[in-house]
Q: What sequence folds into this?
């Protein structure tokens, strides 16, 4: 199935559905499998995205407590959480989502854009191998689930700041799924998972100004019932969220987004990861989903 086929199949017959119709959609949670890496060595010792400021002190103890709160939230929701051993000298390894993409029994390991994070690829590839996957490497840069989000039977793939668009074809071939490329244009939203959240197999939320005109049109075509999030929530990385189809774990500061989620029939759960936000990541960044 080609990307154009996907667009044709999902193209809306009418205009965007009103919120009242969206809210009537029954939401159902399903058990998920996550991998997470403790922020044992987390700090901000370099700046490779607009959120990072080496002059601001980082409280690693607080970061660990906030991360643990997120892990416990997942466990209380009935999800499986496996731990990846952190490596000293890799302070951004806590952002486990960037480690790769695991779907359809296939694993693609990240190839990072910046040398500061290059060592994470080996660590996540080793974890994948221990869990029975044969990690595939791409020739071009890809930053895992930071830019590769599974929605039902397709993969949304970001590019513009980190992942090289040329890697998209490699990834589609490796996992055997159609892929839709989306261009990011605002450097604050340097990964797709900072500007778009997958809520269930047919529903997403996103921040329109983070995308090019063409990509916004594609999103509207594919997801006519998408939730469009305001700047106030996007600016606290509110879209860096994780959903099980009913419960949406999101940054606690994104209160407007929480209201939108509730109106659409989801159950928002706010978690404070403000210390980890200093590195440019939040809920989803810390969560590598292992898709069956």
A:
């Amino acid at each position: 199935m080609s990307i154009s086929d996907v667009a044709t199949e999902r193209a809306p017959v009418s205009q965007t559905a009103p919120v009242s119709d969206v809210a009537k959609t029954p939401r159902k949670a399903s058990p998920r499998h996550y991998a997470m890496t403790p922020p044992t060595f987390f700090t901000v010792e370099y700046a490779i995205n607009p959120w990072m400021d080496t002059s601001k002190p980082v409280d690693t103890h607080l970061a660990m407590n906030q991360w643990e709160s997120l892990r416990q939230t997942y466990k209380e929701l009935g999800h499986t959480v496996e731990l990846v051993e952190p490596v000293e000298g890799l302070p951004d390894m806590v952002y486990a989502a960037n480690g790769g993409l695991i779907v359809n029994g296939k694993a693609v390991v990240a190839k990072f854009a910046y040398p500061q994070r290059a060592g994470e690829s080996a660590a996540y590839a080793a974890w994948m191998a221990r869990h029975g996957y044969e990690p595939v490497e791409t020739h071009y840069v890809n930053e895992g689930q930071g830019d590769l989000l599974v929605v039902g039977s397709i993969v949304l793939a970001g590019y513009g700041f980190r992942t090289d668009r040329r890697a998209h074809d490699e990834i589609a071939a490796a996992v055997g799924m159609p892929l839709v490329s989306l261009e990011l244009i605002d450097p604050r939203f340097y990964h797709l998972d900072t500007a778009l959240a997958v809520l269930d197999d047919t529903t997403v939320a996103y921040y329109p100004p983070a995308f090019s005109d063409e990509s916004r049109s594609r999103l509207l075509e594919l997801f006519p019932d998408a939730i469009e999030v305001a700047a106030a929530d996007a600016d606290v990385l509110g879209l860096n969220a994780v959903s099980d189809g009913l419960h949406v774990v999101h940054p606690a500061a994104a209160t407007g987004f929480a209201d939108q989620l509730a109106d659409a029939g989801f159950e928002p759960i706010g978690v404070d990861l403000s210390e980890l936000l200093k590195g440019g990541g939040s809920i989803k960044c810390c969560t590598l989903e292992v898709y069956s």
